[in-house]
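User: quick one, sequence for these tokens?
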């Protein structure tokens, strides 16, 4: 639908983009477009510093050339913007917050993909902002709202999002210029023309199409063993068959993903151990008629047992950093050309505890507290930079990853296994008396993550939550309080919200002791 605006006043356009998305390129193309059609145009930009590598507002005003030189504004005024283009979904929300989008005037074009802000990444829990809030606000605030995953469109055509944004602008019909003029503006840039034209054409075609219903995907398949023997491949197939015949169909995608994870972490025998533990949980849940609860307990345990069994230790980190497909992925991510040399520096900071965890369990238990041993181990701790693209660096990582075959005999594995055992015992002990509380206890295992200092802090939070749950055990609202403790623990890294929740619990349970 064409929605060409009046040419008797300036057309006002705001392009919001973050660093690296080519907002300046779009602005330059718009300038070239307008000038080639005999219009007067003025473009300015206001850089930001708070979003990823900096969010910038590119503002343009353009009007058909007349007898007198026009006076054009340098900054957008709320309520006076005709076209807002957001190169990232949350930037559309920020444009609405700034008042740049108005229901009587503004066409809003937004790419639906996300490029997470630092604040979203740094929150202990799920810190991703709600995309639905932008959807609702845009539908109310804009005169017209056009959306598509323009980053995916650009990537599929070997280009960057600036080209697909430009195609979306042309498709919207807001600007009174022919499509050929848009394409000529791209050609005038002289860089990456063919790829940009492909992305332009794809965006012009796709924008405004109705979203097709997604076809449910098949459950994830077991990973293929690289160089695995026929016996190992058969072991994989046997585990797949066992999972499919032992568990409800609704749980198969989740449990298969968990099985894949623990096998990738260790081996098929470890995957069998994972299923053994889940068999016990499912049997318990069947006795409790868990089908009425959609097997919530088995689902929660299946998800977080997989993460508990695939904990991050030095061996795991070295394994992931030395895999051949990682080097290919890095080259793909930075778009390295054939023949270009890529160097990779790994930043590592092992502590004495991580290195002691590599010792056999018997030695580790007896030597970890010995001052001489700690001093010797400390020689290898601290900030380390390892060039994994060099022979020496790669071999050091490969050696550490090769310790995987002995992992079950090492101190760290014994510690993690015992912690997992206590967590599962708490879950099963609680299930018969309070099913909902047992589900929440299972979900609390999500708090434990990372390695080194991050792992230590997460263990501390988990322990505090478990102690808080003990204070409310037996109450009718125990599950609700467990959920609140869990959510509070995820709110901030300092633990302020969790401390407040625990203080509230102690106030009505009569407990005077501080939960450490």
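Assistant:
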């Amino acid at each position: 639908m064409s929605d060409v605006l009046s040419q008797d006043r300036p057309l006002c356009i705001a392009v919001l983009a973050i660093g690296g998305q080519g907002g300046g390129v779009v602005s330059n193309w718009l300038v070239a477009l307008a000038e080639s059609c005999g219009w007067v145009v003025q473009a300015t930009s206001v850089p930001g510093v708070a979003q990823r590598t900096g969010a910038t507002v590119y503002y343009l005003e353009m009007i058909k050339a007349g007898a007198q030189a026009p006076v054009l504004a340098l900054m957008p005024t709320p309520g006076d913007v005709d076209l807002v283009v957001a190169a990232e979904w949350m930037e559309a929300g920020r444009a609405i917050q700034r008042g740049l989008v108005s229901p009587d005037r503004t066409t809003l074009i937004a790419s639906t993909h996300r490029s997470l802000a630092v604040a979203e990444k740094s929150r202990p829990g799920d810190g991703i902002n709600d995309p639905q809030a932008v959807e609702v606000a845009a539908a109310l605030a804009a005169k017209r709202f056009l959306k598509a995953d323009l980053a995916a469109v650009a990537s599929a055509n070997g280009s960057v999002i600036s080209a697909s944004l430009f195609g979306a602008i042309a498709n919207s019909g807001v600007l009174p210029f022919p499509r050929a003029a848009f394409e000529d503006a791209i050609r005038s840039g002289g860089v990456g023309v063919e790829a940009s034209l492909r992305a332009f054409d794809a965006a012009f075609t796709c924008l405004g199409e109705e979203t097709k219903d997604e076809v449910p995907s098949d459950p994830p398949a077991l990973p293929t063993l690289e160089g695995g023997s026929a016996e190992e491949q058969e072991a994989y197939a046997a585990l797949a068959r066992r999972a499919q015949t032992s568990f409800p169909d609704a749980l198969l995608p989740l449990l298969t993903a968990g099985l894949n994870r623990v096998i990738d972490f260790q081996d098929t025998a470890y995957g069998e151990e994972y299923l053994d533990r889940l068999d016990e949980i499912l049997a318990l849940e069947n006795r409790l008629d868990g089908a009425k609860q959609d097997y919530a307990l088995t689902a929660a345990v299946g998800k977080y047992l997989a993460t508990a069994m695939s904990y991050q230790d030095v061996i795991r980190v070295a394994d992931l950093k030395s895999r051949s497909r990682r080097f290919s992925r890095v080259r793909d991510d930075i778009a390295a050309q054939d023949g270009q040399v890529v160097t990779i520096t790994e930043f590592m900071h092992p502590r004495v505890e991580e290195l002691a965890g590599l010792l056999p369990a018997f030695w580790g238990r007896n030597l970890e507290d010995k001052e001489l041993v700690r001093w010797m181990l400390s020689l290898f701790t601290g900030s380390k930079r390892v060039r994994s693209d060099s022979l020496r660096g790669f071999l050091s990582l490969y050696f550490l990853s090769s310790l995987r075959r002995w992992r079950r005999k090492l101190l760290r594995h014994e510690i993690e296994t015992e912690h997992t055992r206590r967590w599962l015992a708490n879950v099963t002990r609680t299930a018969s008396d309070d099913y909902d509380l047992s589900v929440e206890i299972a979900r609390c295992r999500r708090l434990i993550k990372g390695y080194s200092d991050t792992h230590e802090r997460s263990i501390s939070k988990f322990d505090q939550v478990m102690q808080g749950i003990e204070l409310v055990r037996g109450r009718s609202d125990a599950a609700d309080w467990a959920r609140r403790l869990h959510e509070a623990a995820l709110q901030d890294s300092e633990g302020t919200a969790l401390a407040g929740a625990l203080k509230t619990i102690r106030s009505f349970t009569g407990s005077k002791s501080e939960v450490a």
